[in-house]
Amino acid sequence: MLTERHRHRRITATPLSIALGLAVAVVGSASAQDASSDTKATELSRIEVTGSNIRRSDVETASPVQVISKQDIENMGARTLLQVLDNLPAARPGQQDSRSLFTGSDGASQANLRGLGAQGTLVLLNGRRLSYYGAPAGFQTQFVNIDAIPAAAIERMEVLTDGASAVYGTDAVAGVINVITKRSYQGAEINLTTDKSSRISSYGEHQGSITAGFGDLDEDRYNVYASVNLYRRDAIPLSDFYDKRPDQYYVNNPNYLPNLRLGTGSKPGEFNPGSYFAFDPVTGRRVQEAAPGCNNVLTSEAAGPRCIWETWMNNEIDAGAKSERNTAYVNAHFLIGDSTEAFAEATYTDIDLTANGGTPRAYGTTTGNPTSWFSRNTGTTVNQFLYPYLGPNNEYNNASPELKALMGGVVGLQYLLQDVGANHFGQRNTDQSYRVVAGMRGDIGDWNWETAFATAGSHSVTYQTTNVNLAGFEKAFGPYSVDPGTGRVIISDHPAYKFGEISEANAALIREAFPTFDIQSWTRLHTLDGKIEGPLFQMPAGEVRAAFGFNASRETFYTPGNPDAANGLITQQGGSWFDGKRNTYALFAETVAPLTEKLELDAALRLDKYPDFSANLAPKIGLKYQMFDQLMLRGTYSTGFRAPSLAESGNGGVFAQLGGYRDEVRCNETNAIANLLLQSQRGGDVDLGKTLLNTDCSRTVARMTQPNPDLKPEKAKITTLGVVYEPTQWLSVSADYWFIYRSNEIVAPDFTRDEDIISSTRSPITESDRANLAALAAMCADPASGVACPGTLPGYSVGNVASVVGQYKNRGKTLIDGFDIDARSRFSLGEWGNLNIGMAATIANRNRSYLDDESGWYYGDLVGYYNNPRLRATLNADWSYKQVTTSVFVNYVGGTKWALQQIDEEDNNPQTCTAGYLPVEQSKCDGAPSWWTANLSVAWRPDAHWNVGFTIKNLFDRLPFYDPNSFLGDSSDYATIFGRGYSLTVGYKF
């Protein structure tokens, strides 16, 4: 962190420090105060840079640090911290709050340097830690929610792209992101921003901020300011997105649009009597019919006519949730005596993210695999639920005599439960987070000291209304009985819920059957730190300086879990339960020594003590060599570590589901059936084949992940080696090689590996399975189908996997390395103003994973494979002319293969022209193409009070390509779905 100390000497400017110095010279200066204040030269003697505790007279250190000023953020068109990180080549796409629903860490955004995940990136606010978000990513990785950082008060960001465990402790393996607020502020200002999309009409981002402060540190001996930031992002419903996916998505999902039933099904809010079905006891064939009174009959299905309804297009889960964030930040500084300063800051953020779940739930008698899930209080027993059948004497069983006769009067039912209306189902996430810091700093002779106490915490709550509560469901449709002949569960003949009407009494029952349940989490972090820094002695080449300090913290994490979910009453929601706390302690030391006039040594050492683990000693050494005025060489070596989080090694566990589970046996068997059906000349067979294709290749199964108290800390070795070259006053170029080797990695079980599965279960072959086989047999027996079927028809040897159990473990190693290149130039155009041009790039060299001693480096190098581009780069040009600044910002991501790694490439390659086992366009058989977007911004400051900005995002209206590996089927990780966007900013300083 760059911080000011003394006010009576000036840093000597050098060409090397021009780019960084211009970005940081405003810290603590009069330029952060009211424009009407007297102009003063802020004189600094020494500054503190992120990644070091020692104050320096040069902003360049042995470690590479990138500074992103507030103006840089505005020029790139970013409105949130997440958007800033998306535009940094060294950062990789992390979790986005709007796309995080049903992930376990719903409603939050992550930082992700070098692609090592949020657990390898340390996020600081003014050089100190923040509390973790309440819900760990994937129930495992604790991380800082970057959405909770006060955006309006940000002065700049410093990104250290080097390991810093020797300075900051755990989490700093891939680097550090230090968000720095204004040190002081006088006056008041208000800023308003709104963003809209040309393609998605419902999209909008709106921000408003007020900042006000008073007191002059030099004259009044104090300064206090506060900033309030209000942010709102509008929700994107399915109605604004369903037809805007890439064309290939609809080719690979031919039933997607027809299944919405737009124009053919009953309208939302209209009564729909539903459909009945049964199975032929001889052939196993499914037979169905529309219930009496149906006005929306679909007749094209092989099983018979069915009553259909339109999908309610207000679903906001996938395309984008609504978010409201309110942040307040207060900062105060007071001078005491001649050499002591007291400081304090407080941050409070309230986040409310909501998404409508769309279509009301349907009552659909289960004929396939039951819903399966684990829960805390039922141990290793798998909970299961099936929607029951209607018995022969049920008052709502109005099926035809012929249909009833097939199963002794028992029939299945499909019926739309729309009594509670359009807005009952969905999800909401709230997060209240805070941090309060109070401390003092001062001088003792030539030494500087600082100490502070910080307390931070978060309270995160996920509210979900999507799953069945078994007790409430039985209240509406029970008591149940069991058909003695088949074991089918039957609802009450006279249930409390009244089929055939839409009423408030029904709505009350549905609210109990599908209740809103909450999952609450609390995190707390209390920290006391102190350090002293100053000169040790004089060497021939200069002064040797050192810093010594300590850190003591108390960390707690508590997720009690929902009581109903813990008892197995909420389907698909066993939830998580964690209860952990620990005290940690650290001592650190650092020194900077000028070995010669040109060679400087920077060494750091940190000792961390976590309970249940031996003390960890993390060293770091750096060298900076000024070969001549225009050329500087630099390099570092350090070790890093990450102690297991309380979620990984504490008490509790994850009782939930695993999406996307691939069972090769069932996948191959079902696809063999589907591929034959797709050859039929009979429409119903083709529709069934489309429905079955790949359905068993990605299933949701019950998953239990157990903590592991025997976990070891992750260890890492980090190296950088770089050069900074300034051949002229107007050009500066830096190039840095970086290397990270991480071992003892803590991973969740990989349920595709048999050795990671402690136990598993399978469901039996279901009635739906037998109906599929019956449909295949009927097709093959009918010459009109035109299909030449084999003598032995494909079938099912096993049922689908129902559950898997695993445990966190230390497994494997990761080796990544590459190059960072940064070039900055500054031109004076005389009366035409000034032109700045910059380029930053990260070139990945290797990304290798060592799973275990048996597999070794089996998967090879991942660079160039999916989501691991070799090149990420940005280019910016800013032209300032009088009161107007025009900026162009280009973000580039290199192309990759579709395959995830060389093993996956055996099935997904240019010859198969597939990705994720799905076809891609012929023009993209070679892989995901390279991608770039450009933003154009114009900022006008007509006087000292007003500023007006206009940005065109995605200037050339580039649209995402089809990405079958992506959840939504598009390349929205780095190609916006919004098309060309427009942003307007207006600000006024009082």
TrEMBL record:
Locate the TonB-dependent receptor plug domain: which residues?
60-176
A single Gene Ontology CC term:
cell outer membrane
Q: Where in the cell is it found?
A: Cell outer membrane
Q: TonB-dependent receptor-like beta-barrel domain: from which residue to which, for each copy?
A: 384-955
Any Pfam family hit: TonB_dep_Rec_b-barrel
**What membrane topology does the annotation report for this chain?**
Multi-pass membrane protein
Q: Does the keyword Methyltransferase apply?
A: no
Q: Mostly located where?
A: membrane
Q: Which UniProt keywords apply?
A: Cell outer membrane, Membrane, Receptor, Signal, TonB box, Transmembrane, Transmembrane beta strand, Transport
Q: Does the keyword Ribosomal protein apply?
A: no
Signal sequence residues: 1-32
PANTHER family xrefs: PTHR47234, TONB-DEPENDENT RECEPTOR
UniProt record similarity statement = Belongs to the TonB-dependent receptor family.
Q: What is this protein called?
A: Outer membrane receptor protein involved in Fe transport
Species per Swiss-Prot/TrEMBL record: Stenotrophomonas rhizophila
* Phylogenetic lineage: Bacteria, Pseudomonadati, Pseudomonadota, Gammaproteobacteria, Lysobacterales
